[in-house]
Amino acid sequence: MSTTTATLDNTALHGDTGTALRFITCGSVDDGKSTLIGRLLVDSKTVLQDQLAGVQRGGETDLALLTDGLSAEREQGITIDVAYRYFSTARRKFIIGDAPGHEQYTRNMVTAASAADAAVVLVDATKLAWAAEVEDGTVVKRELLPQTRRHTLLAHLLRVQSIVFAVNKLDAIDDAGLAFERISTALNAFAEAAGVQVAAIVPISALKGWNVATRHADWVGYEGPSLLELLEELPVTVQDEAVPFAFPVQWVEKFSSSADTSQGRRVFWGRVASGHVEPGQRVTVLPSNQTATVAQVLSHTRQPKVVHAGHSAGIVLDREVDVSRGDWLLAPGAFEPVREITATVAWLDDEPLVAGRVYWALQGHRWVKAKVARIVDRVNITTLESEPATQLEANSIGDVVLSLQQPLAVLPFTQSRALGSLVLVDTASHKTSAAVLVQPAAAKA
Amino acid sequence: MNARTETELLLPPMHSPARLSNTHLDALEEETVFILREVAAAFERPTLLFSGGKDSLVLLKCAEKAFGAGRIPYPLLMIDTGHNFPEVTAYRDQRAEELGADLIVRSVEDSMARGTVRLAHPGESRNAHQSVTLLEAIEEFRFDALIGGARRDEEKARAKERIFSHRDSFGQWQPKDQRPELWTLFNTRLAPGEHFRVFPISNWTELDVWQYIEREHVGLPSIYYTHKREVVERRGLLVPVTDLTPARDGETVQVRDVRFRTVGDITTTCPVESLAADAGDVVLETLSVDVSERGATRMDDMTSEASMEKRKKDGYF
Predict the structure, then answer these.
(1) Where in this chain does the record put each Phosphoadenosine phosphosulphate reductase domain (chain B) (predicted)?
(2) Is residue B215 assigned to a domain?
(3) What is the pLDDT of residues A429-445, one digit of tens each?
(4) What residues pair up with A422 in beta bridges, in sequence order?
């Protein structure tokens, strides 16, 4: 076999590969997400011959089959769960999460979005009534599809740093320029109403590869970069470093010997949630409320180091204090642990959330019981209005008040991803039922 | 991957690790170490699946960094088909001893003797039958977490799997009903008899693995590098000629310069033609390949498009 396909474009050895971009593709069913990813992989020469041979159907290449890896997905022609794919260009490494479009699999989209630096929301131009201004005497509102709204809102709620709309299938429309203009207007109007910042709107044809990897000149009046060029430039998620030091204890390592670096003490391992940690710093332990001074800080590979938010550290304290897995080490006086929080939840379980029920809640590495004190409201995906609700069904978004069995140090999710995020777990089925984003009101409570 | 055609075009200084921009390896290593510690803390009876293959050796290197040599807090488990390359088992034992780790070996042949594994015919590959032996070992030791070296870039079904992947009390994967995995808040709650499979190098690619092996000087069984071997050509693959896999009528046995890209059961693993003598050479070759790691080498994956998914549902690694 030949190696003539070798290409420098497909090396990971150039440019700043330290900042791999994690992005997801999302949007409604059949908007072309899997085809887009297939196109990115093929055009960046990541797909190898045997994989391409595996997706030939009747002489045609079906790019979607490159990521639809489950037999149920191939049978039904839909994406059920996230497929992660890896590719590089000359300038950057990428990790793609191909998220499912069906409403019933929203939980898998949320899984992908929680780790993403960017979201590409696909919009199928052929599904929108963009042409008619007036029909049967009434002005036609150019409604976006519910899943376009839902996924955009979820990506925004989860603080995905950059949200990009890719208007797809414009090659199948006669007056593509007008369609792109009007759909862009509708997208901008929706984003403005929802408070979503849009990084870019790019017209593409995933099927034909227009504006995907390479620019398609003189088309629909668009002069900007191709989608891939854009992705090469997008920032990775910025850590919440301005927030005071907080550190969830993941694992306690005990040394019996006093001869090693830990001087016979215990090392508390975990990932710095906010701020940074260095020797000499004072810390308070939640929940014991004892204080101590940091004697030594180790990097994830056990080298002495000042460790910043987002990175793993091993912390040795100057004296024996009561610390176990699940506890937090906090900057003294910086946090006020609370027993009640107001939070936005993305409900992911088929069994609805009901007021009065008790769930397990996980924050950092700490498990506490959480009771749904009340449901504040639910977001209407179409109107973006709040509406009253007595329960939250699967895939809905709403605000709830949770009362906690033990106090937690929380911050609004908008200030700190690590201190503002929890998951709820069903105590009977053990399913992960919700993503919980702490709201500002609670932090003051 | 015949010879090393045109790799000369690919920047000679790439042989020098210092010249590589591989800070992304630090990020991958840190993620892996975080997951390895999470397993140590969240489970009562975890084990690390260790085959002596390159992915499990990389995993073990990360475990050594996470815990220190001699301090890895879980035993190593190997499921032995009885059809191993001797270089691999020898290296496996040597490495376990160096690290002072507990190595548990459970054998498909024992399952056959018990009658829990029945081969359709004596020559049948034992690869898929490892699932039975694995599930028996899980029951015997009541393991609640098994750490594996599978990567998402290997195969389409693996690309779908969570890092903490739940298994029901029959050891089965439910690909249509995976738990959401949000941020790094891992839901490790289990009912009795259930367990987790945990994949700390999910986000590594084949190239990342080789770059890491080069950078960290991770030792590997010799058959990962070029050596002369008797092979026959069969359905586009180079099939090693061994006692277990003799040449068939009409096939010509040739001696070729080969290396293995993956190492598994002798009856299902094929080498590729290569002169790569060290990890740096392999990095260069990996940059220029046009066939995937498993596509070039695994007879078992080619049987049907869903064969990995099916095996995983049955409890496979």
Answers:
(1) 46-270
(2) no
(3) 999 999 999 998 644 43
(4) A436
By percentage, how much of chain A surpasses pLDDT 70?
84
Query: A173-182, A318-327, B7-16, B182-191 — which is least confidently predicted?
Result: B7-16
Q: Do residue B65 and residue B198 come from a single domain?
A: yes
Instruction: Say yes or no: A104 contacts chain B, CB-CB below 8 A.
Output: no
Q: Distance between CA A395 and CA A376 in Å, rounded?
A: 17
Q: Are B182 and A1 a contacting pair at CB < 8 A? A: no
Whether B118 is in a domain gets the answer yes
Average pLDDT on A106-114 reads 90
Predicted model pTM: 0.89
Residues from chain A contacting residue B2 (CB–CB below 8 Å): 1-3
Residue A344 has pLDDT above 80, yes or no: yes
Q: What's the ipTM?
A: 0.89
- Find the helix packing angle between B279-288 and B206-216, rounded to 10°: 160
Show which of residues 250-289 on chain A sit within 8 Å of chain B, judged by CB atoms: 250-253, 269, 271
Range of the domain at B270: 221-302
Looking at the partner chain, which of B65, B160, B190 has a beta carbon nearest the beta carbon of A70? B160
Mutation target vs A (from B187, B196, B211; most A CBs, 10 A cutoff): B187
CB contact under 8 A, A325 and B289: no
Q: Decide if A18 and B183 are in contact by the 8 Å CB cutoff.
A: no
Domain count, chain B: 2
Interface contact A90, partner B, CB < 8 A: no
* Any domain includes B188: yes
- Assess whether pLDDT exceeds 80 at residue A8: no
Contact of A70 with chain B, judged by CB distance below 8 Å, is answered with yes
**Average pLDDT, rounded, for chain A:** 86
Q: What is the DSSP string of A85-151?
A: EEEE-SS-EEEEEE---SGGGHHHHHHHHTT-SEEEEEEEGGGS--S-SEETTEEPP-PPPHHHHHH
Q: Are A112 and A105 in contact (CB under 8 A)?
A: no
Contacts of A16 in chain B (CB under 8 A): 21, 23
CATH number of domain containing B197: 3.40.50.620
pLDDT tens per residue, range A226-243: 999 999 999 999 887 789
d(CA A445, CA B156): 47
Distance between A162 CA and the closest CA of chain B, angstroms: 17
- Please indicate, yes or no, whether residues B269 and B136 belong to a single structural domain of this protein: no
- What average pLDDT does this structure show over A39-48? 75
Task: State whether B234 and B297 are in the same domain.
Answer: yes
Side-chain-facing half-sphere of B22: CA atoms under 13 Å: 21
